[in-house]
Structure formats: structure tokens, C-alpha cells
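step 4 of 6: structure.
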Amino acid sequence: MGQGWGPSPWSVQRRLSPLVPALAAALLAPTAAWAHADLHPGGGFVAGFLHPISGLDHLVAMVAVGLWGAVLGPPALWLLPLAFPPVMALGGLLALLGVPLPGVEVGIALSGLVMGLMVLFDLRPPLWFAALIVATFAVFHGHAHGAELPAGANALLYSLAFVIATGLLHLVGILLGEARRWPGGRALVRLAGAGVALVGLWFLVRALG
Amino acid sequence: MSGSDPTAMLWSPLGSLPLAHLVPTGLGPWGDGMARLVLQPLDLLLLVALVLLAVQSGRPWSDRLALVLPLSWLVGGLAGLGVGVELPLALPCTAIVTAVGVLVTLGPGLRLGERLCERLLLGGSAALPLLFGLVAGSSLAGHGGALPALLGEAVAIAVVTTLLLMALAPPHPRWLALGLRVVGSWIAASGLLMLGWLSRHPL
């Protein structure tokens, strides 16, 4: 390893290697092809990627999942973002199968409010209870998204992009939550929790009003 | 196809029939086939899920995948070209991708016994790409330039499989092992949404 001489070329290669698939994917996606892809809201990767980002109620709730996971620490840190996408997709599947779910908008608004309050007050329930809360809200989010899944030609790209964007929002929340390690970071995280709760409250008032 | 040389039709770079299942890239059927892997990503999702499943189970097995996966997909694709009509298997194929994604999400904690696990993986990694190749080949059959498009996608599959296996070769640091499971959960979620979509909008 060359002690004292920094990382060996091998270890540098090992660190860089996860970038290789991303590079390959970028190279394999010819720009000419995108000109013909469905870029309108009816389908396609871009539309799917933008969908979770375009709604503030969804956006803050997705960030809050990661944020709360970071506050809870391992294993919740990775378990909540791991479980959220499939459970959310299950909710989407229910919507697409025509199974009704009452109070979807209220459930979505409550997700922001509840998870925001959890972060604000640094509440740490048992893992199973935290997972239950997140999974319940995931079904509401998924149901709303599933009902909006367009009848475009490229539904799989849309779904994939949509799920990736959701996962990246979790990651944003986790990174924000990791600020707790730094001086003043706890206050910042609690402030973020308060912001999420306020947005959730606003949407709850709108949903009930 | 009657009245014309089928071989010439398959190879024709400017075939008279449009490739309904290919997005025109301007790079000819070969390039269109390569782009198909990314733009109609069911095969890509299966590939990624199988690679992740293999690397989760250890290096000796994952090395074999670089050969088995593209070859079996190509064999299936060539057989699919001979079928002549598009096989309506989108729903089962999506269900398979979802199931493999779920297995990746559950991770190496799901122990079935090492030998059984290896045999299942070996069988699955040969049979599933064969099936997916068959479906892809059948969807291209009858179109001009189908064979180069199929070969283009097979090459793309081989390249992506090899690169992924190189990049993700075990042993993994803990964060990467978790990352693999997260990607598995994304694949499972996309598959579930697609299953719902297919049930609402049957192809």
C-alpha cells in the first residue's frame, strides 16, 4: 500500500470505479435519441424525473423521509429510504388497478406535518413504528402518483425516472440530516423539520378547507 | 417478407419498413439497437438486477455472468427474430424484473444455502436473458435492419454488464452494499408501477 505515501493507484481505481457505469450510461444515451424521446408530460424520463420535484407537498415529504432517517440513525437511516420506493409503488399499483384510497391529499399533507414534527422535536420511536408511519404515508404518495401516471408510450422510463428522483430526494434529506455532526447542525436540522411541518400544515389546511 | 431475401432484409441498413420498436438515432439500425437498451429499459433493468444479485453473492459467480448474460440474450434474440410475430409477454417480463429487484432489495440476508443459491443464479442468469432476448427479437422481427439492431443491443448489454461487474466487484464497503439494495428497491418499485400501468393500458 505504500504506507505514508497516500493511496495506491489501485485504491484510487477502486474509488473511481463506481463512476464507470454512470459514464457508460451517459455514453450509451446518444443525444440524437433524446430529440425523439417523449419529452412532453405524457411520458419519458424527463417528465418522470420532474414529477416528484414539481409538487411541493411531495417534495418536502420525500426530503423528510431521509431527514428523519438521519435523525433516527442506523439502521433507520438506510431502511426507511430502502422501503419507501417499493411501498410507494405498491400504492401506485393500487391506484392503477382502480382501488380507491380515501383522503389521499390529507394523507400526503399529514406526512409532511408528522415527519416534520418528528424531526423538529427529535422524536425517536422504535424502528418498527417509524417504518409503519413512513410506509403508511408512502402508500398515500404512491396512490396519488399512480393515479397521475400518464398513458404515454414510455411508461417504464417515466416510472424509473420518477422512482430515481424520489430516491435522490431521500438522499438530499439524509445529507441534510448529516449536518447534525457539525456545530450548529442540530439547530439547522430542526429548522428544516419545522419548515417541512409548516409546509405540511399549509397543505393540510388546504386539503381540509 | 415474401418475395425478398430475408437475410438481405435483416441486414439492410436502410430497410423499407420502419423499426417500430426502435427510436431513430441517426446512427443506423446498429446505433438504434444500442440506444434501445437505454430508451426501452426493461432489458437494462433485468441486466442491472441480475448483476447486482450476482455481485451480492460473491465474485466467483459474478465473473461468469459477463459471458452468460449477453450470450443467452443474443441466442434468445436470434430465436425471437425467427418467431416472426411479437410475443405479448410484457406483463410477465415486467413481473420477473420486479421479482429480481425485490431479491436484490432483500440482499444477501436471504440465504438459501450457497450451492442452491449459486445454481438458481446460474439458471436464472441464463434463462431470463434468453426469455428477454426472445421477446426483444420477436418485437424486431420482420423489420429491415433487425439483425444489426439486435447485435447492437447485444453488444451494449455485454459492455454494460462487463463495466458493471468491474465496478461492483466484491468485496463491498458497507455503504456500497446498502447502495446496491437501494438500487434493487428502485428497480422493484419501477416494475410495480409498470405492472399497474400495463394492467390499465394493455399493450
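step 5 of 6: annotate
 - The interface with chain B takes residues 17-21, 24-25, 28-30, 32-33, 36-37, 78, 81-83, 85-86, 88-90, 92-98, 146, 149, 151, 154-157, 159-160, 162-164, 167 of chain A (CB under 8 Å).
 - The first helix of chain A runs from residue 9 to 16.
step 6 of 6: archive
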